[in-house]
Amino acid sequence: MEYTPTLLQEYWWFIVSLLGSLLVFLLFVQGGQMLLFRIGKTAEEKTMIINSLGRKWEFTFTTLVTFGGAFFASFPLFYSTSFGGAYWVWMAILFLFIVQAVSYEYRKKPGNLLGSKTYEVFLFLNGFGGTFLLGTAVATLFTGGNFYVNKMNLASAGNPIISSWANPWHGLEAVADYRNILLGLAVFFLARILGALYIINSIEHETIFTRAQKLVLHNAVPFLLTFVGFLISIFLSDGFAINPATSKVYLLKYKLFTNLIEMPVLLALLLAGVCLVIWGITSTTLSAKRSTKGIWFCGSGTILTVLSLLLSLGYNNTAYYPSQIDLQSSLTIVNSSSSTYTLTVMSVVSILIPFVLAYIWYAWRAMNRKKVTLEEMSKETHTY
């Protein structure tokens, strides 16, 4: 059986990759929450920061849910393998995001039992744990997981389970691979950079601006070190290639690096994304002219960089979720996708995506038309 991905499968891998890249950008909310106690030294300053982030936290949560839903609908075997096998990691991520939602809802509720300080700590934990765990989980797409896939089990009345995890850690073993840790830390520091840049862009307060500007620079160095370290590690590692004639998965040296060379558009996206991220950081911290637009350069660069890396995983005869213990159980956009009928119906519905994005952009601009100020907080009847 030949490995011949269809246009629909490639289209939906692009949609999933785009949602994943948007999610990484929107983690600026988590990054800003981590910096709450570093930037906000008074109750008023913390309220300004939380209300600025509170206007956007639902975008991140909704994108996370949409990303998971799109993956489930278009590539259900990945959903059942990763979410059903490495469930400790995903349960931890889900719990942290539930804690975030509760914190924004109840921090300023009159008479709340835990007090505002407790919910602020919850927001910090959501940022700290959510970014690192998401980065580590995504890294397993590059490094692989410990799972078996046997579609013949569907015919078994006693054990109709296609995917099974090979150890009792169920995803937690990902932290034993330094490459996963490197990407987890890279996403962690990137979220902090994006969070500081967003605070600079959305809050009118000189002291907050100065503190956030310093934190952008402080987090830039560890981010670049961990991200470049991750890229070097995966580019020099064996990749999981697919023989198009037999559909067999095999190890191929420098596979992911070769993918970028053989798909120059993705290489161009990666280089452009990295340059935009660096420009967003330097224009905010090193330029003599005061700039508040770094979030847009850095955010656009984040989206392009993540998009190029995720696309390189699914295209060019590559297994996007390799199995470390059974190469032939590795998932590809062909063997893990939904039926042609399902993908076709979903593609028709996806025509609405540009309209949804346009609405999000409109709502974003409407909420950010006026920067958060101390005066506004004193007059606002609803605050987070």
TrEMBL record:
Q: What is this protein's name? A: Cytochrome d ubiquinol oxidase subunit II
UniProt subcellular location: Cell membrane
| Organism whose genome encodes this protein | Acetobacteroides hydrogenigenes
Taxonomic lineage: Bacteria, Pseudomonadati, Bacteroidota, Bacteroidia, Bacteroidales
Keywords for this protein: Cell membrane, Electron transport, Heme, Iron, Membrane, Metal-binding, Transmembrane, Transmembrane helix, Transport
Write out the GO biological process terms.
aerobic electron transport chain
List, in alphabetical order, the Gene Ontology terms for molecular function in this entry: electron transfer activity; metal ion binding; oxidoreductase activity, acting on diphenols and related substances as donors, oxygen as acceptor
Kindly list the GO CC terms recorded for this protein.
cytochrome complex; plasma membrane
Where would you find the membrane-spanning parts of this chain? Answer: 12-36, 57-79, 85-106, 118-142, 181-203, 215-236, 256-282, 294-315, 341-362
Which InterPro entries does the UniProt entry name for this protein? Cyt-d_oxidase_su2
Which membrane topology term applies here? Multi-pass membrane protein
Family recorded in the similarity comment:
Belongs to the cytochrome ubiquinol oxidase subunit 2 family.
